[in-house]
Amino acid sequence: MNLVKIFLTALLIDNVVLMRFLALCSYVGMTADVGQSVGMGFAVTFVTVLATAATYPIYHLILVPLHIEFLQILVFIIVIAALVQLVEFYLKKNVPGLYTAMGIYLPLITTNCAILAVTFDNITKGYDFAEAVVYSVGVAVGYLISMVLLAGVRERTRTSPIPKFLQGTPILFAATSLLAVAFMGFAGLIK
Amino acid sequence: MIKVILITFGFSAILAFTLGGLLALFQEIFKVVRDPKVGAVRAALPGVNCGGCGYPGCDGYAEAVAAGNAPVTKCAPGGKDAAERLAAIMGVNAASESVVAVLLCRGTKAVAPAKGEYVGIPTCRASKLSAGSVKLCAFGCQGFGDCVNVCKFDALSMGDDGLPHVDYSKCSGCGMCAQECPQLLFAMTPKARVGSVVLCSNRAVVKATVLKTCKVGCIKCDACVKNCPEQCIAMVNGIPVTDYAKCTNCGICVQKCPTKCYRLLDGVKTDVEVVETAAAV
Fold first, then answer.
1. What is the CATH number that goes with domain B99-280?
2. B36-90 — its CATH code?
3. pTM of the prediction?
């Protein structure tokens, strides 16, 4: 039950993009069409879970016993970046189809702030390993959902008569704020 | 205190070496074998990334050639030499001729008056879009040097006469100026071309309007078409076009042309030869 609660909180109530305003750069950059945003969303999901699985044991098994917790930012960034590189090598050789599908997204998200935030949250919220993995999946799927929502909105705005001063990024953020207001309705979902 | 520093240092070093080693190992284990031809083709190209071939830079073209998706003759800066090198690598025949850019307009400031004072964005494309043309002639050179800016080989320069001049010792024939010119005034001409050429692009339908807008424009009098002994000149869209398969370089069209639009080419050598000398003919 606790796991479901963590998942839903991460997914809707504390949606990483719409309620916490993280990862806005890739959110704006990668939502030109729905297909692209789905690809980016799945790539982020994959990397987030992987990053959690790698950084959580490093923190609790190495950094804490050695009393060098202050190194976590540095270590996490390096570990995540290296990890993504390793995965990229593997995919390039063994799953070239997936590699070309993920293409530029994989290197792009190596130090995505949402991913780094998840790894820090896992520590500060005091989760155990299972909770941390569920939490990271929740955050990443939340990111995927908001990406797809905005991509859908963008496809509609492309053919809409938008006032000139709002065209481009302004209308994007206006739409994002409306989406965020809608997501505030989820706040009472879990007591 | 010193202990923390040592531990931090030690841990960072171990982490760095572990990750570095893993990356190196993975790169070796999961090495993707590339077609060796790509590297050979890329090395044979000049590497100026001009984009004249239509591919994203020399790397893109090299991959397309190595995969057999592109002809070996597309590289204009490399010209015949590059085509032959590529052909040797790919095992095909190269039939390529070097081309250079020739400006088909002689509307200098002196002979082709401006409509008025143009105060808009100083590029050819902008003046063409906003004013139609800065000159009375709607087909002539705008003279803002879009072609000069796009030339990667420093072969073009804006002359005092208001026209761009080509330095044929530098022109590689990449064709970027021809793509950039909003008036389509540059003709990519084989360097060894022999025959007559009309240095005017005025396609105005009404004959009488041409002389008002430019003193050296083609007035569509058909004198060249009628007088050519080989009958190798034909009017195409208001401009006489020479059929170089038949042209004997006799020079009759050059003599007959009332506005002196014609030039005889014996290989494109210097800009002066193309643009100015024949004013004396």
1. 3.30.70.20
2. 1.10.15.40
3. 0.52
